[in-house]
From TrEMBL:
Keyword Oxidoreductase among record annotations: yes
Organism superkingdom: Bacteria
Organism expressing this protein natively: Actinocorallia libanotica
Protein name per Swiss-Prot or TrEMBL: NAD(P)-binding domain-containing protein
Keywords: Oxidoreductase
């Protein structure tokens, strides 16, 4: 079920290009809010349910873009975005293109340049939820682009998530924000699943573990602001919890994993990062020093 943020935006024509899982959900949200919505997809059959709900199906990309001042794009790749917009470059002028497609920051900036050359305005958006969360008051969408474009279309964009925000004028910034959230998420999830493998090998019920360890795990996120501050200031010296004190615990985790036949690549990678930092003379620095190990230049 897709929720909808309460929004008093005056109905305005909107076009949605791409009717995959997320693109179709975006169109549903717009229709529910009363916006005349034109949809297009390379496979026309994907528009049938939306047409039944009141959407207008465009036969071509040019027709779809010509129908609205505001064009939302959500397709499978940045290359697909460029190909689709390239088919209708001559009708882009004067419109606002909101690209909600995944890709890299460089690809977002390249699409922004193409759109600008065509005489249109551009915003890049990174939706930080799966389909059921689209339109929820607590759902986050990061946007990047001109503030004036964002402000003009904000009532419409807020329909996608109540926590939408313009993070920078750079259209590549929301992509990096999204990747940073996902990278943190995968690190936490992978770390927990590695821990779960150890606990299950011992026959420990995970719910029981969380009941006991919940406060310790919750406290971990409280360290992120201080780590961020140390990285921003490039000052990593630590009064407590220096890297040299992490080494024995990491080595214990590695040996325990190997003894139980649990994959050891996560603790092994952590040990390599800490060992390298200590060898480089940073034994008394805090964990934030390990950012150096993730830089390749």
């Amino acid at each position: 079920m897709i929720m909808s943020v309460k929004n008093d935006a005056a109905p305005r024509p909107v076009t949605v290009l791409g009717l995959g899982e997320m693109g179709s959900a975006i169109a549903v949200v717009l229709l529910a809010a009363g916006h005349p919505t034109t949809v297009w997809n390379r496979t026309p059959e994907k528009a049938e349910a939306l047409v039944a709900d009141g959407a207008r199906r465009a036969a071509t990309v040019r027709d779809a873009i010509s129908a609205s001042e505001t064009v939302l794009v959500n397709v499978k790749s940045a290359a697909a975005v460029d190909a689709i917009l390239g088919e209708a470059k001559d009708v882009l002028a004067g419109r606002a293109v909101v690209n909600l497609t995944d890709g890299t920051s460089a690809e977002a900036r390249e699409t922004a340049r193409f759109v600008a050359e065509a005489g249109a305005r551009y915003l890049h958006g990174q939706i930080m939820t799966i389909v059921p969360g689209l339109g929820h008051p607590d759902s986050v969408v990061f946007f990047g682009g001109e503030e004036s474009v964002y402000d003009r279309h904000r009532p419409l964009l807020d329909l996608l998530g109540g926590k939408g925000t313009l993070v920078a004028a750079d259209p590549g910034a929301p992509v990096l924000y999204g990747m940073a959230v996902h990278g943190t998420m995968w690190g936490i999830l992978n770390g927990f699943l590695h821990a779960a493998a150890l606990l299950k090998d011992e026959g420990v019920e995970l719910k029981r573990f969380l009941d006991h360890a919940g406060p310790s795990l919750s406290a971990l996120t409280a360290f992120l602001p201080s780590i961020a501050d140390e990285v921003d200031r490039s000052q990593h010296a630590a009064q407590y919890g220096a890297l040299r004190h992490h080494l024995p615990s990491i080595e214990d985790l590695l040996r325990e994993s190997r003894a139980r036949g649990v994959a050891d690549h996560l603790p092994a990678h952590t040990l390599a990062l800490v060992t390298e930092a200590v060898a480089d003379g940073h034994a008394d620095d805090g964990y934030s020093r390990l950012i150096d190990g993730f830089r390749t230049r």
